[in-house]
Specification:
Two copies of one chain form a homodimer. Chain A is α+β, with helices and mostly antiparallel strands.
Amino acid sequence: MPIVQHQQKGDEAMKKITSRSEDYSGWYSDVIAAADLAEHAPVRGCMIIKPYGYAIWENIKNQLDKMFKEKGVENAYFPLFIPDEFLKREAEHVEGFSPELAVVTHAGGKKLEEPLVVRPTSETIIYDSFSKWIQSYRDLPMVINQWANIVRWEKRPRLFLRTSEFLWQEGHTAHATAKEAEDYALMILHDVYQKFVEEYLAMPVYCGQKSRSERFAGALNTYCIEALMQDGKSLQAGTAHDLSDNFAKSFDVTFLDNEGNTRHVCQSSWGVSTRLIGGLIMSHSDDKGLVLPPRIAPIQLVIIPICKTEDDAVMAEARRIKDELEKLYAIKIDSRINLRPGEKYYEWEKKGVPVRMELGPKDLANNSCVLVRRDTGEKQACLITELKIKIPELLDNIQNSLLEKAKERRNETNTNVDTWEDFEKGIERGGYIFAHWCEDESCEAQIKEKTKCVTRCLPFDFDKEDGEHVCVHCGKKANGKRWIFAKAY
Amino acid sequence: MPIVQHQQKGDEAMKKITSRSEDYSGWYSDVIAAADLAEHAPVRGCMIIKPYGYAIWENIKNQLDKMFKEKGVENAYFPLFIPDEFLKREAEHVEGFSPELAVVTHAGGKKLEEPLVVRPTSETIIYDSFSKWIQSYRDLPMVINQWANIVRWEKRPRLFLRTSEFLWQEGHTAHATAKEAEDYALMILHDVYQKFVEEYLAMPVYCGQKSRSERFAGALNTYCIEALMQDGKSLQAGTAHDLSDNFAKSFDVTFLDNEGNTRHVCQSSWGVSTRLIGGLIMSHSDDKGLVLPPRIAPIQLVIIPICKTEDDAVMAEARRIKDELEKLYAIKIDSRINLRPGEKYYEWEKKGVPVRMELGPKDLANNSCVLVRRDTGEKQACLITELKIKIPELLDNIQNSLLEKAKERRNETNTNVDTWEDFEKGIERGGYIFAHWCEDESCEAQIKEKTKCVTRCLPFDFDKEDGEHVCVHCGKKANGKRWIFAKAY
């Protein structure tokens, strides 16, 4: 009977991953299942983040938290529930979030007098506190972050990308001037979000400003980082909002300036979520499964001892190597003796572990081992005495190479487009389209209806072009700087 | 005008903390406000954990998480919402939690077909997953933890001690045998909870088994750690439940054993929460405010440079000392020049920072500084060159001394009681009463009605007494081991 069980598991484990070319969306789901990252919960739209997926989130969280703290950000925790009345105080804000809210109407065995909304974001309840905490210019800037769960009811859920509940961080600040609030939002965008996503997740991004229709509900301006996925669609990977004094006016957040005048503060808010894991998967993974950049991988090196018993000399050497290196790297030794080496290779390949070390009796006799890169499949022999030099080199190479490859893939699709015909062709092909646009909302709506494609941002990375320009769609006068258009997640 | 503002703040800052002897409950609230740890939220029963309070929680969380991981525990994340039907599957469980539930009835603009409960604990939704994840004995033991927010509607909220929403960790395990599940619960109780609470929070605890009426709803047995607060009341600081196969039967969590038989798993679950911060406050703090054990303090040493400008030699030396020591200790330098030294001493005293360093021009001339212990107020001069030896000594001394003092305080009140008259007197006086008890639920209910005091636990730490024993209340045959009784939070 245990053998039958083992075969069942084997069949399950051998389930082939759909290829990207065949069905990208099916491939995405298969990669998540094969790497055991997450699954749909019995509650519609919600997900269960399994231990290996959660370990990736912990790495993301720990690194971001460190970067925030280096900037002087302090963590706090605010209630899950928001009084209905709070949300209604900022008119655009409530309009934007209403369709997505989950509402508690009963608690403690009674109907509540006022319904409570499960937080879809926490501007309102946090700024109610800011209005009490801030009195003088000496209390500014106030910079607070919280790591929390968020609920936005989702009709078409997809693991990590769109779920009714997700995990995120939300930063909230208050400043004396509009300029400081804007600068802070941009500082977080560049110095934390872009830096982290490029250096750790190996996802190149464009930073830019959202169009009016794509702004956060209640913001003066929304800035974003956008990353291109392998199927040519864009993913908004993080946002930072310049809230100006919009919320400060609704929540009466004022301060006495150093001349004794009462003024409204200006604010920013900014967040990234478990969505980053979706982007990570779609940036690097292949038809064999997950590919993880070393700097975010929960296991950076997996050692596969090729031996048949627990007390073999090969196993002993594998353990010695692990003991020697585990202070420097996240190392796992797969010491299961009921699986063949090939089955183990397959499993850790699907889980995206950057480097696999194969260690057999012949290798041991030569004081050597074989290192296999997950991203390229490249194999190389390595003297065991040289592991301390070779492993960091290899991990760095993989990290850099993943970023470079993603950058090349993106840049190859970048297309400047000046006619509507080319625009439609470009959208059909996928990737980023750079076009002059009139910035009119109704024109944007028409483009969306025709092509299912929206403005991603007005990127900071490119210069204004000389001369007069017209909108690629309606022909009216356009911004000299090209907007990025793409289909998006 | 700024001067007026400053005076207002000064008045607020100088608000006296109610003394413990005058009004213990008022003292508790004042200490929290004076240290700026948390406050009541505009949502009834919920709290806002402010940055300094949250930094304590982060230290608790990081240390516990490290200890869990050393035991092989893996973190995961399960949904906030639980289908109503899940809770109803375990009869005792739903009965226990029903009065405290918050219920989502509307989401995404529609009435839900089945209401969703905001998790009061996650046994049901996690074990639904276990039933899919566990197939064979090879999948056991399964050991999962989650850090999450929890909602149990609270009619008489108190910051940290009882709030409608709180933060916690909940561990959930599945094992092949009942013995393994019980052993795991006890291992967590002793090797993680007791160890952490005593060694880090400096709170001595008794470990023991709860009476039937005090058990977790759905458990075979609940084990707990109990700590005595300064007012003679007990605080349940953590629990570990032996669930046997109760939930496994309701959620069909089975495995094929190595002989091919299908069997139910046996389980444990265990948790500690932000309640620990309430215990921490009530264990060590005094009439001057918060007292924190060094191993959990967000700031271990605060340097107060006594000078009037930012570019003073004293300030420069303070910064040099900070740079030298901050890799070893959590150090803050209070460089504000708009406050007098005395105001700063007062502020950091209220925040419970274990050691304060005073550094003035005369000290600097002698290459010396003054170190002041928060717990005893003891002052000592220290050569700056000897700080590297003196500071760790001092922090260790404070840590040990807080634990010893708490232990002495508790042990002094411990009273063996054999008559009902002495029992009532003992309860009136406060502290732990050790008494023989018949273990009958109706007897326990009567004791509670008469004295407002309940059984805390049958402690593991004491031996059975020889001879026959009778219940201190009803006179029936009693356990040879004494139970602990006390008023409790």
